[in-house]
Amino acid sequence: MTGTNPPKRIANAIINALKGGVVPRVGLEYITVGRDLEIAALLHDISIISEGGAAFRFIVGKYGSGKSFLLQAIRNYATEKGFVVVDCDLSPERRFVGSKGQGLATYKELVKNMSTKTKPDGGALPLILEKWISGIQTRVMLEGVSPADFERSVEREIFAVTSSLESMVNGFEFAKAVTLYYRAYNRSDERTKANVVKWFRGEYATKTEAKSELDINFIVNDDNWYDFLKLMASFMVQAGYKGLLVIIDELVNIFKIAHTATRQSNYEKILAMYNDTLQGKASHIGFFLGGTPQCIEDKYKGVFSYEALRSRLSDGRYASEDARDMLAPIIRLSMLTHEEMYVLLEKLSSIHGQLFDYAPKITSRDLLAFLNEEYNRVGASAHMTPREIIRDFIELLNILYQNPEKDAASVLGGGQFFVAEKAGEEFPEFEL
Predict the structure, then answer these.
(1) How far apart are CA 84 and CA 75, in angstroms?
(2) Which of 286, 310, 332 is the last residue of a domain?
(3) 163 shares its domain with 188
(4) N or C: which end of the chain has fewer CB within 10 A?
(5) For 1-29, what is the mean pLDDT?
(6) What is the count of structural domains for the chain?
(7) Confidence class for position 427, pLDDT limits 50, 70, 90
(8) Whole-angstrom distance, CA of residue 214 vs CA of residue 159
(9) pTM of the model
(10) Which domain, by its residues, includes 84?
(11) Across the chain, what does the average pLDDT equal?
(12) How far apart are CA 254 and CA 266, in angstroms?
């Protein structure tokens, strides 16, 4: 976490995203507070992945609790540390399996959002392939190979990598596509390069089309896309990265599937992925899945409705609110404390002032009054989340900036903090 304010471009993204109720994809390090235990647990998973292991976690929290924020923060950290990260949100059109290609649609979205440190906004696949090829060429050049043997030596290195992939499921076809890309790269054959990337992205509708354009009688589909991600992870390590992190949010869209058999098929796919990672059948890959408590624990439609998953994921006898097991498959997010929310609001006030070139006039007394109003308004206890508090606070900052004659007390309506102050009384008790 940094103590300085972000550049205006990032400050603008942070403020606009949070006001709109969504998580910014950049600048999270400037506003991250709390979650120390959760972050430590996930960073431990990432270290295991970098050493050749695998990980599978469910991040569970109610809407607006910071679940997606935590996933994005881990995504940014992983790319900084040399991982390739793919991420997507599930939807009615994107599932783990489906009769209308919804599993393939999830794979396509993941690959489209493929990110690295140098390409953090997605679309990193061509860059990864070309960086890998140029890296091999540089290495061969530094070995002092003669110009006459240069191409042969580079091809030998390429084939060493592709051969290591051929033993995996669908590895022969994957290795062939990598080799095709290398040869097209050498010939500056942009059309073949584009076709290979299209194949990697799962955009060929039929095997016949792929056979015609690439002489590869195989395509990614609903049944094999997970195996293809494992191949991707192995290749990324060969290409110099530490592993592949897969982040999938909005599991609630599986919970919402009305057809029982379809819903159970999706849970069966999750079980297969879970078993693979924990039994050592996958390496250099991690899966972080985000969902709400209901979509996990509901015994009729949630993940726990699938007995094989419920028996694996349920808490044991000794875990409790006071003794949380952060190494369990499910990480349940507790609400931010009052102290953490106060620190976050201070950060947002500073960033807002920097973005609009003014000195924030909101005081610590104003922050306390605002939090008091938020936590004590009617019905707040039933649904209050960081998302709602942040949205309201940015609205308050916007109003104070646009109406310099107003102060926080007038906008907040003279809440009990300010009433007490005018009467010369002590502030109402509010624990920070």
Answers:
(1) 9
(2) 332
(3) yes
(4) N
(5) 83
(6) 3
(7) very low
(8) 18
(9) 0.85
(10) 35-116+241-332
(11) 87
(12) 7
